[in-house]
Amino acid sequence: MKNEDLLKIAVIIVVLLFLGGLFSWFRPTATVSNEEQKSANTTSLATGYAIGQIQRYSKELYIEPWNNFSDTVKQLQMEGKLDYINVIGNRGVLFLTANANEKEIRDIFAAKNVLVFGEATIVFPEGASLRLENGTMRTFPLEPIKRYIDPFTRPGDKITFEIIADVTSDSGGIKIKNFEANPIADMDNFTISGALNCTNRYGLQAEVPWEERKINAGDVAKTLNISELNVKYTVNDRVLFSRLLSVYEFNEIRNKNISYISDLTYEGFTTNITDSDKIKDDLTFILTTNDTNASNLSLIFSPSNLVAIFDSEDSHSVEESVERLKKALILQNVIISQKCELISLKIKDSTEKEYILSRENEVIYRFVPIDKIEEQFQATMIARHIGRIITAIDKIMFGSIIAEQ
């Protein structure tokens, strides 16, 4: 059999082994000698966390699905960046040359709307902080693991892992027999910039003062000339205390049997009246308490929330509708926004390191305040990430305003 045929058979075996565990973690197991097995007394479970650091990538990239990228392959081979390629089913394996940059080649194929993976070696310089079954915390060294991940995350980048380990205790001490490492998304702040592709859908957010909260969603819809289905009004009938009541204060209010107070708790109560002055007068006895163990007490009358959705060809007609509503009702903190797709995004952390969105988050629509809509935008994003991949977006803020979905 020719050497070339042997090489191809070996490559196929390697690829088949990879496909069997493409998305699973390797679980390194320390070698235990016969003597150690004999002297082992107990095996228990330990859990905790560790910070992994990508040490390097192998020189293979895995592409899925493979769509006969023959022109791209020829170009990479001409440039001396690709040594060999093997295709099995709808997956392709690229064997890169020693001087090839896997990130550069990753970007070429990722732009073709395919998944790209590289085999990363991940080390744990600080070991793992684990809680033993007896409740004590100990730090253990961890062996490196291998993981198939998107090579947009670079060598030197860190990933947090949850560690579940079998720990043995014998005459030689406590050690990890084997462990499982599962990635955990970290929450961080990011700067997000790009362009806006806006639709004809507009939104209104406003607060209705507590004393004015007895309004009807149907009347709001009529004034705005939209369907009542497009109006959401969340009324707030609660009155909160500025701090938790003492037991003495709680009993004093309960014993008064004030007719309009219901659902009394140490945090507040519910009422169906709108006269805040009457409530303050009726609770004067508790607001000027003689309980020397309690600090001053006050009442909090929080507003109700009004949201409405419009479809319009321009923002001018929306603003006119909102002005009509403001004449009919007392509103505060009024925000008019437009639903836009956030495109051509650049995402950076505080160190200027770049991130990308996972497939599940590639398309982002948000209601952007109309006074923040520009050809190019910049906002703050709070999101979860694994390595340099954004896995979940918590919120996007234009200034102090949260852009709703």
Set out the fold topology.
Layout: H1 3-19, H2 34-39, E1 40-64, H3 70-78, E2 82-88, E3 91-96, H4 102-110, E4 115-123, E5 128-131, E6 137-140, E7 145-149, E8 158-170, E9 173-184, E10 186-208, H5 217-224, E11 231-234, E12 238-241, H6 247-256, E13 268-270, H7 276-282, H8 284-287, E14 299-300, E15 304-311, H9 315-328, E16 332-348, E17 354-357, E18 364-369, E19 376-386, E20 389-398, E21 401-402
Parallel strand pairs: 17-20
Antiparallel strand pairs: 1-3, 1-4, 1-5, 1-8, 2-3, 4-7, 5-6, 8-9, 10-15, 10-16, 10-19, 11-15, 12-13, 12-14, 16-17, 16-18, 19-20, 20-21
Q: How would you portray this structure in words?
A:
The protein has about 400 residues and is of the alpha+beta class. It has three domains: about 5-185, no CATH class; about 190-230 and about 305-400, no CATH class; about 235-300, no CATH class. Helix content is about 20%, strand content about 45%. It has nine helices and 21 strands. The chain has helices at about 5-20, 35-40, 70-80, 100-110, 215-225, 245-255, 275-280, 285, 315-330; strands spanning about 40-65, 80-90, 90-95, 115-125, 130, 135-140, 145-150, 160-170, 175-185, 185-210, 230-235, 240, 270, 300, 305-310, 330-350, 355, 365-370, 375-385, 390-400, 400. The strands form three sheets. Strands 1, 2, 3, 4, 5, 6, 7, 8 and 9 form a nine-stranded antiparallel β-sheet that branches. A five-stranded mixed barrel has the order 10-16-17-20-19. A hairpin with a 2-residue loop joins strand 2 (about 80-90) and strand 3 (about 90-95). It is flat, with a radius of gyration of 31 Å. It starts with a helix and ends with a strand. The model is unreliable at about 10-40 (pLDDT under 50).
